[in-house]
Write a structure and sequence with these properties.
globular; mainly alpha; 133 residues; 7 helices; single chain; 2 strands; 53% helix
Amino acid sequence: MSRDLTPKDSHILDKHYHFSNEPLVLTNIETGVEVKIYDPHCELALQWPNAYYLATEIVEKLKGAPTTLTLFEELLRRIIKLSDDDKPLVFPDDQLATTIAKWYEGKLDPNFYYSTHNNELLYEALRKVTVNF
């Protein structure tokens, strides 16, 4: 049995294999219908590349809140840089950055096994900082 990758795991793999540069298409083997679930060339991916690659569903849900997505992208870039440099992901004065860092490491959901609940918790946190959403 396997577990989902954390966003950090996905980022590390992407640094080596560049998955974020390729579309991801699922094909129903019974009907042959193809569904594109990730498109690196769509407007959302171009505006918020890290957020879209690591949290496509969340970005899709919040696409009407560009200010929130820009903040998410900026904090995520900071977190990724710190992580890549093996620095601690500690933000004592920024609850949102702390929440995103926990999500990135797969620790927002203390029972992380599948990413669904981890992503739901981040979505709720981002939704709370979104005005008029």
